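User: Fold this; C-alpha cells only.

Assistant: Input:
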Amino acid sequence: MSPALRCTQGLKVTWTGPQTIQRAEGDTVTLACSYTPSLLDTGEIDIEWSVLSPDTTKKDQMLLSYTRGTKYYHGGPRVTEGFSFAAGDPSKGDASLSIAQLSRDHSSTYQCKVKKSPGVDTRKVSLVVKVKPSVPRCWLEGGELVGEAVSLHCESSEGSTPLTYKWRRESKDPLPAAATQDGATGELRINNHTQRFAGIYLCEVNNAVGAERCRISLRANKHPNRSAVIGGKVVGSLLLIFIFLVFAGVLHWKLKDRRHHEEEFSNEIREDVGPPDSRPVSRHTGRTPQTAYNWADQNDVRTFHASATGEDKQRLEMTASTDTQRDAGGL
C-alpha cells in the first residue's frame, strides 16, 4: 500500500524588489531574500545561494550556504570574494546576499533557495553591473556670430550604453525655440543665433547607473564692421608699400656709395704707380739676335759720334767699320 500523500503550505520566500537589478561598477549591492516559515515546517533551516548557468545543461555554481547555524563558502576565494550574508543570523528570516566591489564579472542570475522540511521555496534575481558615464567634454562649433548657426557638443569617453544626453540652460530660461538637440549624440544646434541665446549651458549625460555633466559659455558676437576691415586692409597695404620703398632706397644708396668708394680707390692706384719702363721694340727682320744687338750698338755709336771730338770720331768710325765687316763675313 503506497504511503498517503500529504499537501502542505509550508515556507514562503518573499521578494519585494525588482527581478532585475542594475548597479554601477565598484558599488555594493544587496540581493534581498526574506522568508516566512510555516507552523507545519519542523526541520532545520537550510539556505543556498547559487549562480545559475546560462547553459541549462551545465551545473550551477554554489556560492554560500547556511545549515544548522554554520555558514559555508563554496568554490574557493576567487569565486566567493566579496560575497556574504547580509544578516548576521540568516535563520531569523533574512537570507539576503551582499556583494561588495561590484565588477562586470558579477553580472549574472542568482538564486536564493530556502528549505525547512517539509517546506522549500526559491527566488531568482538578475544582476547587471554597468559602468557610470565619465565626466563629458563640452565644446562649440561655429563662430558664435549673431544670425548664424552654432552647435554645442557633449560627449563622454566612458560609460555603459545606452548613454543619454540632455542640454539645458543654467538660468531658468528655456532652450531657444530654434534649437534642436540629439539625445544620442549630444549635439545642440541653434540655427539662428541671437543675443538672447547667450549664456551658460549645461549638458547632462546619464545611463542606468549614474550621471555626469559639463558646462559651457555661449557668446553672441556681432559681425565685424566691413568698412573698418577694408580700411585696415588698405592701411596695411600702404604700410607694406612704404616699407618696400624705404628698403629699395636704402639698397640704392648702399650700391651708389659702394661704386663711389671703388672709383676713389681706382684713382688712388693710378696716381701712386709710375709709368712703365720703356723697352726697345724688337723687330723680326730675319737677323740673328746678335745682329739685332749689333744694329742697336751701331745706333748708339752714331749718337755718340755726333757729340765726340775729331780724334774720337775717327776711332769710332774705324771700330764701326770693323764690326760691319765682321757681321758681313758672318752672314
